[in-house]
Amino acid sequence: MKAATTIHAITGMALVALLAHDAGAAPAGSGKELPPKPSVADVVKASKPGDWRPLDPENTLYMELPAGRVVMELAPNFAPKAAANIRALVRERYFDGLWVMRAQDGFVVQWGDPEEETPRPFKAAKTVDAEFTVPAKGTGAFMQLKERDVYAPQVGHVNGFPAARDPKGGQAWLPHCYAMVGVARDEASNTGNGSQLYTVIGHAPRHLDRNITVVGRIVAGMPLLSVMPRGTGALGFYEKAEQRTPIANVRLAADVPAAERSKLEVMRTESAAFQAVIEAQRNRGGPWTKVAAGAIDLCNVPIPVREQQ
Questions:
Q1: CB atoms < 10 A from the CB of 211, how many?
Q2: % of the chain residues with pLDDT over 70
Q3: DSSP secondary structure code for residue 92 in this structure
Q4: Bridge partner list, 214
């Protein structure tokens, strides 16, 4: 499949049957029960092995917390410099023994070094050029949603990540959807070096798009972060050291023995199965649903992840 291609049409009689609009569907407010339709779970169950891809060990991070493992997938096509510096930080074991230091309700959880006066030294780059947007060409096959977006001219998915782009400017970027991972920074754009990272735990703060480098997303372990006790300090930072959650270590999957890796796979967002996932979420059937939405927001599209089959 050619990179940076917008794909609008999905072929195949099986998918057509799955997505076909029921001519007898009741209009909103008619009082008639909506006909049953395939759910996201049904689509996942009916998917084929080719609809899934394994995580790339060179772009997969494991963060070990007292409650378990958090798995993050980097998106080097959208943030190559940031991803490279994060890999360098991980390989010099920078994060080992640091902390989850912030949990702001409805916003983000952040981890790294909370010490501003005597920060932990590291060999990786101290400044990294901002990658708020990147050239759309080369980021991958862009599967555009038909819905209009408030924050971007076009939105859709690329290689397992939600994505936005501006075709006139030729730029693309990753949005601040739930579970996306961003690179914390100070006022200067190049101060985000990956030594402090955060993930979105609340309603998508899309106003941050194109103002912070977004470098990946959490694909497993989000409940471990989203339930963190909320910080009582400014912006949700913990005021006392004992309130922080310790990070045992962070490792690249490539550096972990195969037997100890998380065996996960992500649904290919260029697959017909993923288009069926979108439709299942966009137009839910009855009997519980009384009014089908008929539309979907980018950050409300689930990107299925499962244990390798």
A1: 14
A2: 90
A3: T
A4: 182
* CA diameter of the chain: 67
98, 147 in Cβ contact below 8 A? no
SS3 of 50, please? helix
Supply the range of the domain harboring residue 65. Answer: 55-116+126-265
Q: Which two tokens stand for residue 102?
A: 């912030």
Question: Within a domain: residue 281?
Answer: no
* pLDDT category of residue 7 using cuts at 50, 70 and 90: very low
Cα separation, 192 vs 231, whole angstroms? 22
For the chain, the residue count is 309
Alpha-carbon distance 105 to 226, whole Å? 9
Please name the helix (run of DSSP H) or strand (run of DSSP E) that holds residue 89, with its range, or none: helix 80-91
3-state secondary structure of 19: helix
Query: Stretch 111-130: mean pLDDT, rounded?
Result: 96
Contacts with 307 (C-beta within 8 Å, 6 or more apart), sequence order: 263, 264, 265
Residues 4, 142 contacting (CB under 8 angstroms): yes
Is the predicted pLDDT of residue 21 greater than 90, yes or no? no
Instruction: Decide the pairing of beta strands 161-166 and 154-158.
Output: antiparallel
* Strand ordering across the sheet containing 180-183: 245-246, 99-103, 108-112, 197-200, 180-183, 214-220, 68-74, 60-65, 249-252
- How many domains, the chain? 1
Specify if 241 maps to a domain.
Answer: yes
What's the pLDDT score for residue 32? 80
Q: What gap in Å lies between CA 87 and CA 305, rounded to an integer? A: 23
Confidence check: pLDDT of 288 > 70 = yes
Q: Specify whether the CB–CB gap between 23 and 243 falls below 8 A.
A: no
CATH number of the domain residue 67 falls in? 2.40.100.10
Q: How many CA atoms lie within 13 A of 204 on its CB side?
A: 18
Q: CA-CA distance, 67 to 70, in Å (whole number)?
A: 9
Tell me how many degrees the CA angle 197-198-200 measures, rounded to the nearest 5.
Answer: 160
| 200 in a structural domain | yes
